[in-house]
């Protein structure tokens, strides 16, 4: 079995070794610029992370394209230039627990005022601050999918009121659920910490904007772990300056790496991390993809097939 592979930021040797252990029949071929179906051997499957379209365009050989991440926006942006093969995303694969760690840490840091205490410590200031009231500290999660639900579960352990917003109505124990455009305003009006873990689609792009921020209570906090294009950047800066938004932790940006001259770096109420909220884990991803290839070879259905119309 021949697998066409592209993931420029990760280590080829680890993938080769990992697949060799679990799928000895598979040969991983690392795609190089200039290779097309015409001038290279056919492949059975493709495994990719943010590939150039020249890698995939016109490839009628691959039976499925596996995305080495949960978000498929970097693939779907190519539209009809993509081969017709099913696109399969990573389904948790160890990312759920990382997201839960990242978001829980950030919520606790803000709720327990560690961000304020860090600022005080920088000024050698010893002062006890008024604690926030947990009953008024609801965490609202935009996106109640694989990762959003895992985040909700983790926050519930600390007794935060948790709300979630999705496309179709959900029933998640202990979570106040809202759905669709008609449920958004009510969801936002009771959300003190807004967590974005939505896929990037034409419907969700720029959702984190002035109009929606205005519906949050005064002093709300933003955590964006989804995609940079969800956020209207000037709107966030303006809302932080006005005091309506207390601060934000941002893991994803329109341009990554975030350029050195970007104003976010100068805003002390914004905490920046370099797209690490949930990293793609080698072993978990290899196991999941190998299991799905085996299922496809047996003619069985698999989870995580992307709906191209919906965009996720
Ligand atoms: P899922 O597909 O499992 O979940 C997506 C959720 O978003 C679903 O609940 C879906 O609703 C909801 N949704 C989608 N569109 C809309 C809409 N228009 N209105 C309301 N709700 C909507 O995705 P995952 O949880 O696996 O991943 C989510 C995203 O997290 C990824 O797409 C990626 O962008 C990001 N990510 C970021 C990482 C990082 O390190 N920063 C790492 C991994 C992922 P419904 O269930 O009703 O369809
Ligand atoms: C993903 C990501 O989508 O790493 O998995 O951002």
Annotate the secondary structure layout.
Elements lengths: L1 E5 L5 H11 L4 E4 L14 E4 L4 H4 L8 E3 L5 H4 L10 E2 L6 H17 L2 H9 L16 E4 L3 H11 L5 E5 L8 E5 H10 L3 E4 L13 H5 L5 E5 L8 H10 L2 E6 L19 E3 L9 H16 L15
Parallel strand pairs: 1-2, 1-3, 3-4, 4-5, 6-7, 6-9, 7-8, 9-10, 10-11, 11-12
Helix pairs in contact: 1-10, 4-6
The chain binds NADPH dihydro-nicotinamide-adenine-dinucleotide phosphate (NDP) and oxalic acid.
The site of oxalic acid has 5 residues, from loops.
Query: Would you tell me which CATH topology of the largest domain applies?
Result: Rossmann fold
Number of domains: 2
Please state roughly what percent of the residues sit in beta strands, choosing from under 5%, 5-15%, 15-25%, 25-35%, 35-45% or over 45%.
15-25%
- Given as residue ranges, the uncertain stretches (5+ residues, pLDDT < 50) are none
Task: Count the DSSP helices.
Answer: 10
CATH class of the largest domain, please?
Alpha Beta
Helix content: 25-40%
Mean pLDDT: 97
Strand order of the largest sheet: 8-7-6-9-10-11-12
Largest sheet: 7 strands, parallel
Please state the second-level CATH architecture of the largest domain.
3-Layer(aba) Sandwich
Radius of gyration: 21 Å
**Apparent shape:** elongated
Number of beta strands: 12
Span between termini: 28 Å
Secondary-structure class: alpha/beta
């Amino acid at each position: 079995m021949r697998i066409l592979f592209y993931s420029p930021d990760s280590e080829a040797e680890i993938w080769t070794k990992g697949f060799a252990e679990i799928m000895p029949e598979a040969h991983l071929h690392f795609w190089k610029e200039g290779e097309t179906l015409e001038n290279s051997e056919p492949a059975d499957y493709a495994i990719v992370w943010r590939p150039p379209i020249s890698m995939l365009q016109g490839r009628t050989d691959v039976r499925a394209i596996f995305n080495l991440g949960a978000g498929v926006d970097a693939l779907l942006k190519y539209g009809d230039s993509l081969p017709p093969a099913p696109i399969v995303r990573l389904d948790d694969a160890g990312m759920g627990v990382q997201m839960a760690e990242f978001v829980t840490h950030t919520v606790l840091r803000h709720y327990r005022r560690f961000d304020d205490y860090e600022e005080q410590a920088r000024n050698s200031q010893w002062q006890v601050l008024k604690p926030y009231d947990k009953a008024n500290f609801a965490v609202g999660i935009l996106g109640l999918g694989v990762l959003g639900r895992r985040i909700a579960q983790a926050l519930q352990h600390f007794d935060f009121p948790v709300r979630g917003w999705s496309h179709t109505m959900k029933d998640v124990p202990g979570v106040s659920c809202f759905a669709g455009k008609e449920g958004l305003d009510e969801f936002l009006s009771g959300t003190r910490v807004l967590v974005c873990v939505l896929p990037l689609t034409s419907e969700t792009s720029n959702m984190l904007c002035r109009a929606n921020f205005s519906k949050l209570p005064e002093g709300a906090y933003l955590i964006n772990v989804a995609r940079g294009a969800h956020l209207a950047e000037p709107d966030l800066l303006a809302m932080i300056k006005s005091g309506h938004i207390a601060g934000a932790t941002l893991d994803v940006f329109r341009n990554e790496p975030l350029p050195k001259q970007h104003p976010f770096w100068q805003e002390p109420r914004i905490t920046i991390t370099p797209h690490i909220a949930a990293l793609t884990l080698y072993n978990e991803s290899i196991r999941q993809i190998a299991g799905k290839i085996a299922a496809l070879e047996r003619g069985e259905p698999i989870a995580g097939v992307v709906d191209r119309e919906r965009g996720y």
